[in-house]
Amino acid sequence: xxxxxxxxxxxxxxxxxxxxxxxxxxxxxxxxxxxxxxxxxxxxxxxxxxxxxxxxxxxxxxxxxxxxxxxxxxxxxxxxxxxxxxxxxxxxxxxxxxxxxxxxxxxxxxxxxxxxxxxxxxxxxxxxxxxxxxxxxxxxxxxxxxxxxxxxxxxxxxxxxxxxxxxxxxxxxxxxxxxxxxxxxxxxxxxxxxxxxxxxxxxxxxxxxxxxxxxxxxxxxxxxxxxxxxxxxxx
Amino acid sequence: xxxxxxxxxxxxxxxxxxxxxxxxxxxxxxxxxxxxxxxxxxxxxxxxxxxxxxxxxxxxxxxxxxxxxxxxxxxxxxxxxxxxxxxxxxxxxxxxxxxxxxxxxxxxxxxxxxxxxxxxxxxxxxxxxxxxxxxxxxxxxxxxxxxxxxxxxxxxxxxxxxxxxxxxxxxxxxxxxxxxxxxxxxxxx
Lengths: 235, 189
Fold this sequence. Notes:
heterodimer; A: globular; B: mainly beta; nine-stranded mixed β-sheet
């Protein structure tokens, strides 16, 4: 084990063995500005029908033909720290194809691109804070962090809340994946119970008959919930 | 609400391959096209060795010139025929920008000056190697934000100042680590 570099900003976080952070993670503690009720970050950008179209949530329908792979439905609720649904907010996802290859020029690992799969999707959460995507299960892929390093299958998620402080970018993993035990990126979260929160649950209730396998994954946004405007309040 | 209050879902790095998913055309053109009040804010992102970071993603959020924080949709639009992404239209101000750094670590934003009551651009920065995004602010020189910065040690406050380089042009570099490390912000609970 190499020396552990502690991320001072986030208790319980380590940089090693995820080596990419060594020259990028700040060394100084962040400045707390939570007390300012006028902070711009307590509000956030707004997205709507201009940015998101109905087809965006089905990643299997963005090309002429059907993509390779195991079709899945991924759905869950987005909540704030008070347990309230986060409504009408933008969720963006991106992922590798079934072979574990991204539709990105920098990904040159020798797995085939799929002309019928790009791997990007968007939706807005509904009145209950729910999101839902139809996609294919991404493949694992090798990367250069250490010898025989393979990323477990994962879907990247980007979420907005009502405040910029609630911004979240994270990754969703699949249950039962043997690579989860070895992944330095997942293990930047040092607490096992917290890591488990990044792993979706297989949920046959979400499966679509003769069509897709269902996975359920709920998301809780950070942010100083106590000082956020109450979404139930009339402005 | 009877469920126990949950803790936030852990963050994970944006990784190296967000580029075909998150950036959108005109992501740095926040000012309405042709608006004579527009300013340019630009700079580099550097790592702890002083090398430019070519794969960072910066997001910008700010108050409108009239002080409004309501925002509005329309930061990008859709081509109904192809489904592709189109730049925002020439009207209105969404307050939101999203700009990936180039191969040289450089980024550029064209926006409207923030109001004196909140004279800064809020920045959320993502990059491969960062397990958690970083918040900072670019206080635009000459709009009164210097006063707010005096609460910080002087040499560190410098890192939050977007310095005037010329007419309507401001420079803001981000140093992730080491000498001159940018002040990053937390919004505690």
